[in-house]
Design brief:
Elements lengths: L1 H27 L5 H12 L3 E4 L10 E8 L6 E10 L9 E10 L5 E8 L15 E6 L16 E6 L16 E4 L9 H12 L3 E5 L2 H11 L19 E9 L3 H7 L8 E8 L4 E5 L2 E7 L7 E5 L14 H9 L9 H5 L10 H24 L3 H28 L1 E13 L2 E12 L3
Parallel strand pairs: 6-7, 6-8, 8-9, 9-14
Antiparallel strand pairs: 1-2, 2-5, 3-4, 10-11, 12-13, 13-14, 15-16
Helix pairs in contact: 1-9, 8-9
């Protein structure tokens, strides 16, 4: 009786806890089966080719283009690519936003999957130098000459890209503060890329087109008349242009730009493509020749600028005042279009917990305690301890399920959508959402 009493008052509980701790890894951290380990090893051998952002440049909290080149898969049929991006949370790496992209797999065929993703955790960027506060994307064969832009306010980052890197969804331009097109084959962009570019400019994007004098002269020669207006830019951009490109002129000096923007201009002639501003366009003249033209896209909120000179070439590349010229093209850093703090007042701070959830949780806890106390009171033996262990293991499986039910039934999604007209027949919609949970 003394041994049974001692077992009843402590030993059973100690053994029960010890067995539970020993069984815990076996229940919740089961190693993968051999075939799964073999599949993981095979997948590790076939690396994914992942391209994020614009030339690797990203911006926090906005949609970014993501391109994933999938290696040949062993079977055909419906498949899904799941993308986890870091988000803000109490611990780095613990919170992610998940994007699922379904696709049709074809056996032994390489697939390219494109999807927009949002990286919201500034503590886990690709690398600090790859994160920009403001992003300039340059479509140029010459990938030098813009390093000094990092001296502009707003932590400006420059990404040099090719035409195929431009997005096919206009929303993925959200990270771009200025798109510079210096070299562009008219046939380089497909229809979806063209539509995305045009839509982005109309909803507020800033586009800078460089009419390189050499390219303009070559286009004029191709047209058969050196003095003829040359279609330097692709035809689909024509509705956005603030000016047409005219004849090539050799100016004795570029000092007029220094007078307008400051700095010291090196001596020497400057070859320019004469601009012919359209109605309503602003322009800057050099020796009486328009060399800069800018205007809105006609039916939108963006800005399109044309430079009739090549800033990548002397004497402009050596001009100390060129940063002010680029700052003007980049524009002022835009203020947030939405006052999140103001909207927060209109979002629910919490949601009432379903009374049925209270009853379920209370009943589960009372049943668990009753079973353990019943075994302890009426059968204080080793068999009872084993039975209690089974109860504990069952509870370890049941309580997570119950917690998931509680979380699902005690959380709602509140959202506000802001619709802004941005031109005739166009509008921009921005949705701010918040997940509201019961804290108790």
């Amino acid at each position: 009786m003394r041994r049974a009493r001692a077992w009843r008052f402590g030993h059973a509980l100690v053994v029960l806890c010890g067995l539970a701790l020993l069984c815990w890894p076996a229940v919740f951290f089961r190693p993968p089966p051999p075939h799964a380990r073999a599949a993981s090893s095979a997948e590790a051998d076939r690396r994914l080719d992942v391209r994020l952002g614009f030339g690797g440049i990203v911006k926090i909290g906005v949609p970014l283009p993501l391109e994933v080149v999938l290696p040949p898969l062993p079977a055909s049929g419906p498949a899904e690519m799941v993308i986890d991006a870091p988000a803000l949370g109490p611990q780095a790496g613990q919170v992610v936003t998940t994007t699922a992209v379904p696709f049709e797999s074809v056996a032994d065929t390489v697939r390219v999957i494109e999807a927009p993703v949002v990286i919201s955790d500034p503590r886990r960027p690709v690398s600090p130098e790859r994160v920009g506060g403001r992003v300039v994307v340059a479509l140029s064969d010459d990938r030098t000459g813009l390093a000094a832009l990092h001296r502009l306010p707003g932590r400006v980052a420059v990404a040099y890209v090719t035409a195929e890197a431009l997005p096919r969804r206009w929303q993925e331009y959200a990270a771009v503060d200025l798109l510079v097109i210096r070299d562009l084959d008219p046939a380089a962009l497909d229809v979806s890329q063209q539509e995305a570019l045009l839509r982005w400019v109309r909803v507020g994007g800033r586009l800078l087109l460089v009419a390189r004098p050499a390219a303009a002269a070559q286009s004029a020669e191709t047209a058969g008349s050196p003095g003829r207006r040359a279609p330097v830019f692709p035809a689909y951009l024509d509705p956005l242009l603030p000016a047409d490109v005219g004849p090539i002129r050799a100016l004795p000096s570029a000092a007029g730009l220094a007078a307008h923007y400051g700095g010291t201009m090196p001596s020497g002639p400057l070859t320019v493509a004469t601009l012919l501003p359209r109605a309503g366009a602003g322009h800057v003249d050099l020796s009486g020749v328009p060399v800069i033209a800018s205007a809105g896209p006609g039916t939108g909120a963006g800005q399109v600028i044309i430079w009739g000179f090549d800033p990548w070439r002397p004497p402009l590349i050596e001009w100390s005042g060129r940063l002010r010229l680029w700052e003007e093209a980049l524009g002022r850093e835009p203020a947030p279009r939405i006052d999140v703090e103001g909207l927060a007042e209109h979002l629910a701070a919490g949601t009432p917990l379903d009374p049925a959830v209270h009853a379920q949780v209370t009943s589960a806890i009372l049943l668990y305690i009753a079973l353990l106390l019943g075994l302890r009171r009426w059968k204080p033996t080793v068999a009872a301890a084993a039975g209690a262990l089974l109860i504990v293991l069952a509870a370890l499986g049941a309580f997570p399920v119950l917690a998931e039910i509680v979380r699902d039934r005690s959380a709602t999604l509140a959202q506000v959508t802001i619709i802004e007209p941005v031109g005739a027949g166009s509008a921009r919609a921005t949705t701010v959402a918040a997940r509201c949970s019961q804290n108790r």
